[in-house]
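Progress report, Aim 2. The chain analyzed during this reporting quarter is listed below.
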Amino acid sequence: MKIWTSEHVFDHPWETVTTAAMQKYPNPMNPSVVGVDVLDRHVDPSRKLHSHRLLSTE
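Predicted structure tokens for the chain:
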């Protein structure tokens, strides 16, 4: 299992960024990702979105 963490500040509206991030997979252009499960998702007191997802790959 590979553990991966990433943090980035996007210069776009909140709705655009969160919608794009949650719809990224599954993606017909990248068939190696076959499933995504959300393990935990919350917004912390500083208004950061934390999303812990499990990606299943081939």
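The chain has a mean pLDDT of 86. The two ends are 13 Å apart (CA to CA). These observations will guide the mutagenesis work planned for the next reporting period.
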